[in-house]
Amino acid sequence: MLGNLQTFLNNLALMTCALAIGASWVASIVSPNCSFDKLTGARADGHVRELIHRTSPQLGFLMAVAGGLFLFASSLIAGIISLVAAFGFYATRMMLAPKEGKNAPGVRTRRKEQRGTSVALSLTFTGASLIAAILGLFGF
Questions:
Q1: Distance CA 60, CA 111 (A)
Q2: Does residue 123 belong to any structural domain of this protein?
């Protein structure tokens, strides 16, 4: 009975992890490519930043759920890596938080580096999610 429950929870965690991987791929690869093809540079940059800012909490939630399910299914390493990926997605959102207050005179804020860094972080934690899914597939 317990073996069946562990298998069910592990499979459910794999599906949740796969959903987060697919959504992150769309948010950080597919949509920016379409945005930069169809929009001007500034609008595409703003669109990509807003998209990653809006999708990161949901991706973090999915990975936190997957991590909890992996831990309940006794896939400890996959669960820990999933929880690290969840924290990473939340950290990506915090990095893209809107600025508060005004800049000092003569200081410019460059937002393009934020977009590049947030896409890189999102892809890094997508890779961590993929590693967690592979480890969970084999029961580690």
A1: 23
A2: yes
pLDDT for 66-112, tens place per residue?
Answer: 999 999 999 999 999 999 999 999 999 888 876 677 777 777 777 77
Task: Give, in order, the Cα–Cα distances in Å from 127 to each of 3, 34, 92, 131, 138.
Answer: 29, 22, 14, 6, 17
Q: Does the residue 129 lie in any domain?
A: yes
Domain range for 87 is 2-97+110-137
What's the rounded Cα separation, in Å, for the pair 78 and 95? 26
Residue with tokens 């999610």: 129
pTM: 0.88
Q: How many domains does the chain have?
A: 1
Does 27 map to a domain?
Answer: yes
Q: For residue 73, give the DSSP letter.
A: T
Burial class of residue 97 (count of CB atoms within 10 Å of its CB; 0-12, 13-18, 19+): exposed
Q: Say if 105 falls within a structural domain.
A: no
